[in-house]
Amino acid sequence: MIARLGRRLVWAVFVVWATVTLAFVVSHALPSDAVRMVAGPQARPQDIARIRSELGLDQSLWVQYARFMSRLVHVAPAGAPQGDKAHATCAPLVGRLHLDLGKSAQQRRPVVTILAERMPRTLVLALAAAFVQVLLGVSAGVLAASRKKTAIDHLAVGVSLLGISAPTFIIGLFFQWFFAYRLRLLPLDGWGDTFMGHVASVILPALTLGVFGAAYYTRMVRDEMIGQLGQDYIRTARAKGLSRRAVVVRHALRNALMPIVTILGIDVGTLIGGAIVTESIFRWPGIGSLSVTAMLDRDGPVIMGCVLVTAVAVVLSTIAVDFVYAALDPRVRAEQ
Amino acid sequence: MRSIRRSSELVRSALAALALAGVGCSNELPAPLPSAATDASQPRRGGMLTTASFGDIRTLDPANVADGLVPQILESMFAGLIDYDVEGKIVPDLAERWTVSEDGTQFRFVLREGVRFHDGEELTADDVKRSVERALHPTSPNPYASYLASISGFARFVGGKAEHLDGVTVDGRYVVTFRLDAPDAAFLPLLAMPPLRPVCRSGGTRYVETWHPCGAGPFKLLPGGWDHGRQITVVRHDGYFRPGLPYLDAVRTLFHVNLTSQRFKFTTGDQDILRDFLSPDLLKFQADPRWKPYGEYELDKQVAGLAMNTEMAPFDNIELRRAIASALDREHLVLIRAANMRPANLPVPPAVEGYDATLKGQTFDLTAALEHMKRAGYAYDPVARTGGYPTPIPYTTYSQGIDEYMVQVTMQQLARIGIRLDVRVVDYAAFLALRGRRKQVAFGPAFWTQDYPEAGSFLEPLFHSRSINDEESNNSAFYANPRVDELVDRARHELDAARRKKIYGEAQEIICDEAPWAFTHYYRFYAQWHPYVRDYKPHPMATTDPTRVWIDRVAGRTAARAVFSGDVYAKLFGDGSPRGAPLSRSAGPR
């Protein structure tokens, strides 16, 4: 188990390095000028040259890459004074091990600080959205499968089709208009200023993402459940006199959830990488909206930070899924 | 029986929701939120003004003004020696008065005594010199530093060969003098802009990124007042040098608010001034008599057109450029966004000093355009549709901008003189890089917003040969004419406004005739506010100056934070909707 985890983590490091390197090359290969975006569309060449030099962007691509990689994860010298300028853009990882993504060319703040501000907000939205989509998707899927070919089944399938077909910006705008503008029940957008404000603010974006994701889950759970409910072990369980609820929930649903676990893991990883459209609609200050702004502004250090967060989140969630899968399914455990 | 009742309730609710959606999607605008006392003339202190933008600010330092939104926030936090009033005239601000030497190279400013920074320290002439040097120092990322190159000793200071800027001298505790190498008509307009505004001593002598912004303006930023990427709230500076001002307790600016959300926020009173409109909404606001008294255009500060690279074929052919300039029906083009765009015939917008309404400029004349095509060697017969330029001309534009729409109309208009376009769309960042690169973009959209309200702010960067570079060329038409260069330089050194206008006029006539650009439109923003926002007038440079604005609001529409706080059914079916009368909530900061 430990050895397997170690192998997976080594592989994960390689995947993250490859992703980050590819992103670095691509962001520099684009036919645009990051310094022009910093200085503004009307800045003069002499001012642009000065800012380029100040940001170190007048160096060759290889020098910039070497500097980035050497700083990305490094060991700080022992006894480094507090507020050491050489480590002003770092975040300590473990002990003297530091993570340094440099500073944003646009905001002129350490990228780790920007990510640290955004991450909790992104996590809140990702987990809330995952909760909504699992709750709605699994409930509707189970209900539809256990009431197969009834009005409830048709309604669940129809609604899920609608959910899949409607893009998040339509769902989000509708929720915004209905719940926030017309009914004034919930905040229109933003993050809120108090704990209750945060809770109220997350409902609409989480619902938007959740409804969209739940539509897929409904269909998947329904199909899986119908398959499981036709299995011999279900017939045996019924013959033993188990209640309908016990058969559906304890036996069929547990097996039907296996593919959901896989998808959910990847979904959470992707959501941590940012729900770009939903964050933009609801002005949610997360990683997604940060990625878009950084990309439009060609803010290289922030782009690299967002790519790193997304890559790490997806890779770790994939590893977590593998282990959860093994924990849930004895057959997988036996194979391993 | 129970299930039947449930079903009927479900159906009724579904129908009600549909009906509600229909009502909500109607074209009618809700009424503006009234002021407490419509005839009150005595300003009331208190309250918070909320504005919003789809954009964001990057830094809050006068020495690094790198986006279009931040000047309005800097305007409220940092007072300058001089400033623009709402009519666009330069007026004293921190300076009580100033004198100019006869040769126009020395500006002597006498500061007001007793002016306090946000941290309570007194502002003196030393602070002015320190702030100027801080903003122009080579380690400062100031994108406007080179605009101040006329100050004596600038080159040595920026080149790191001098510790101090010789051209700025302190002649007493409250007297500071600027010396220029030569007379510069742009100096005062530039000084009125944010970059050289005095900053607190905590700002130091060099730009530091971690500095907490602190100036001598009417509002100050408290720690934690700026939530990056989300909003900024500045509060009243009680030590502001103008007695009794500002009236507001605070000003809040929200960032990244999309246009639909801004419309929702504005009509419910969660946002007090609206400037970013969906195009149909703007027309509705302007047509609605209830809203019309509370809306106003800002000054035209932006010119747009089609830049033709004079170093690249086919635009090295002056007659072809003239043909395109004559073929554009600008009245038709501006219909794309009629509420914001006005037809442009000159490079200098009407609100800018140096604009001359008597100049003819470029005008739509199809017959003349066909004649120019003939002289260019590409005669076109519009009846037989034969002739014209033989191959499609590459046209490089950017996505998600208004030009994406304009180019479609442009293509139709140029087809009438036998010119076809091959449109290539790139993203904005790539477009900015490509257009400034030598021999890279033959034809494409061009636009320029005034850096300071003077014709030179347009003519020098866009049409002077000095602005041509292999990379990052602001003269994206790569247009060079020694006569234009000479006129623009002469105008910059001419301090007499009437003579300067005449010189700029001659330069504009040449530019319009030789057509490195085909000018298309001037762009102007429109601001809409609620009646309870009093004494608001768009600022000519900074968009919003909240110094004299006050709030006279009886019934604020606070965002409904309490879930199910009211009768939801009544809100759905009754008059609890935002289009009804204001809710009876108390006035004050929201």
Structure description:
The complex is a heterodimer of chains A (336) and B (590). Helix content of chain A is 74%, strand content 4%. Chain A has 336 residues and is mainly α. Chain A has a three-stranded antiparallel sheet with strand order 1-3-2, with helices on both faces. The longest helix of chain A is centred in the middle third of the chain and has 36 residues, at 111-146. The termini of chain A are close together. The model of chain A has no long low-confidence stretch (mean pLDDT 88). Chain B is of the alpha+beta class. Chain B folds into three domains: 42-78 and 217-277 and 529-590, D-Maltodextrin-Binding Protein, domain 2 (3-Layer(aba) Sandwich); 79-203, Dipeptide-binding Protein, domain 1; 303-523, Roll (Dipeptide-binding Protein, domain 3), CATH 3.10.105. Chain B has 16 helices and 23 strands. Chain B has a four-stranded mixed sheet, covered by helices on one side. In chain B, strand 4 and strand 5 form a beta hairpin. In chain B, helix 8 packs antiparallel against helix 10 (366-376) and helix 14 (482-493) runs antiparallel to helix 15. Chain B starts with a helix and ends in a 17-residue tail after the last helix.
Gross CATH architecture of the largest domain in chain A: Orthogonal Bundle
The percent range for helix content of chain B is 25-40%
Number of helices of chain B: 16
Q: Class by helix and strand content of chain B?
A: alpha+beta
Strand order in space, largest sheet of chain B: 1-10-9-8
Number of domains of chain B: 3
List the uncertain runs of chain B: 1-25, 556-590
The parts of chain A where pLDDT drops under 50 for at least 5 residues are none
